[in-house]
Amino acid sequence: METRILYVRLPCNPIFPIGVVYLADHVHKQFPNITQKIFDLGTVPPLDYVSALDACIDEFQPTLLVYSWRDIQIYAPVGGRGGNPLQYTFEYYYASNPLLKARGAMGLLRIASGYYGELWRNSNLIQRGVKRAKRYNPDAKVVVGGGAVSVFYEQVAKSLPKGTIVSVGEGETLLEKLLRGQDFLDERCYIVGETKPRDRMIHEFPTPIEKTACNYGYISQIWKEFEYYFQSQDFYIGVQTKRGCPHNCCYCVYTVIEGKQVRINPADEVVKEMKQLYDKGIRNFWFTDAQFIPARKYMDDAIELLQKIVDAGMTDIHWAAYIRADNLTPQLADLMVKTGMNYFEIGITSGSQELVRKMRMGYNLRTVLENCRDLKAAGFNDLVSVNYSFNVIDERPETIRQTIAYHRELERIFGADKVEPAIFFIGLQPHTHLEEYAFKNGILEPGYDPMNVKPWTVRKLLWNPEPLGSFFGEVCLQAWKRNPNDFGREVMDILEERLGCADLEEALTAPIDKPNSQLVTAS
Ligand code: B12
Ligand code: SF4
């Protein structure tokens, strides 16, 4: 029987579906004769999801369904789909005014029903698709993967049909083995109702592949809605330049999804891929790497890539990426500005070197400041978003004062109007060190369900433990009241009014660990 693969990207905010594009490209390079089609529900209006999927399956009659599920938006604390979940959560947990508390409860209820609704809808789209495909090909198979499945692979099985192959992390090799009829169960996957995920499966290393430039000529033949993403100038089209992150940040799951081993995609191939998009009019790119410059030893790769972008004549582009800002040199800063980096997120989490170390983030705040000065000197004049997550571990009034001092220094470097503090609270994710810490400290029981959003679970998973939890709750509520449109800056101002500001030098110096109390010693 002829193999016909249908890639279904499940509904998602309009983010370019780079995952399925890469999978289809890889399969085509290995099996040029297999017929493939990409169907992106991100471009379909919600009321038409079911009918559009049915019509697509009726027409294409796939023998293999590849469902890609990007996000299950559980603890998105910033501007979520149904309002601001962080605000509702904090109103519900911390407001003393009963009206505010009630508003928080209503908001949370709306968000929870939206969340469960999306889970149900996506499972239904999978079940329905398989059933329909079997009408035409009784042996049709289904594989499910993508970011959301990678994080919650242990939980999703209960809503998927028996026989579904659930995949963790990158799926190229799994699909290849499946299509060759080889045993694929040594890949990071399991089959619903037949095999169980191996213990700590997500920590297994992905099978490395040699990444070559995506063939967009081919992709545009198998994907009708491709042009959709070119219509708005706001889209940042994804391009991956490497896979893997060697770090250990306590709350982060990227390093396990992608693995710790960094695998660089050859610069010439990345540029070749970008050039095809550039020639179609694309000017905004998002380097979708977990980290664009994961460590000092990868700075030369970043330099090579950026230089090749310039050499290829792509001098009027913009790009963005996750950047820790600790691995920069003046030369690299120069190239970043010259090649159009126009959005810059410094995910430092805290301005206290002591806490940065305790969270296992492995960088030096003093170096970050020096590099920011280099970026400014190189002409960087766009907005800088600085991510702070308070109260992760061992936060105290003095560490808050240090974070204020650090933030004020960033304002001195870039200009106060250019530095935007993005205040997050960590959403605890499975398979992280923070989860392990929560088990060891009796905050969570092993076997808890991370996809459960009951109020008592959310209180533990949206990480803001006492004794400072109520204090931060109260500060955030005050900030929303005083200036809802500039929440981050308002939080920083209120914290400074209440606690003051440390000496910068104090923020940059970490004292020697006290045993037992920190995450650093918890494993
Ligand atoms: C870059 C990135 C972003 C960028 C995207 C920029 C852009 N224009 O593309 C930005 C910053 C905008 C972003 C935003 C968000 N993101 Co994000 N993001 C990532 C990140 C780091 C990489 C994703 C990526 O594109 N990778 C490269 C491509 C090639 O890989 P991929 O799509 O995952 O596909 C591969 C595999 O998943 C697999 N695969 C995919 N589908 C399938 C299907 C099958 C059957 C198989 C076998 C395999 C398979 O194979 C593919 C090729 O190897 C991941 C974390 C990570 N390291 O994976 C989080 C991640 C995807 N994001 C996540 C989330 C939650 C979000 C937000 C909702 C956060 C928020 N609070 O607002 C937003 C909103 C996104 C939206 N839909 O609106 C979560 C999703 C899981 C979850 N918790 O629900 C992730 C996993 C991070 C995390 N652990 O929390 N994100
Ligand atoms: S937070 Fe960034 S640097 Fe840290 S492990 Fe995750 S991807 Fe790597």
Helix content: 40-55%
Distance between the termini: 52 Å
Parts with pLDDT < 50 across at least 5 consecutive residues? none
The description of the largest β-sheet is:
6 strands, mixed
Average the pLDDT over all residues and give the rounded result.
92
Bound molecules: cobalamin, iron/sulfur cluster
The percent range for strand residues is 5-15%
Radius of gyration: 24 Å
Number of helices: 20
The total count of strands amounts to 14
Order of neighbouring strands in the sheet with most strands = 2-1-3-4-5-6
Q: What class, by secondary structure content?
A: alpha/beta
Please provide a written account of the structure.
- Helices cover 42% and strands 13% of the residues.
- The relative contact order is 0.09.
- By secondary structure, the protein is of the alpha/beta class.
- Iron/sulfur cluster (SF4) is lined by residues 245, 247, 249, 252, 254-255, 290-291, 324.
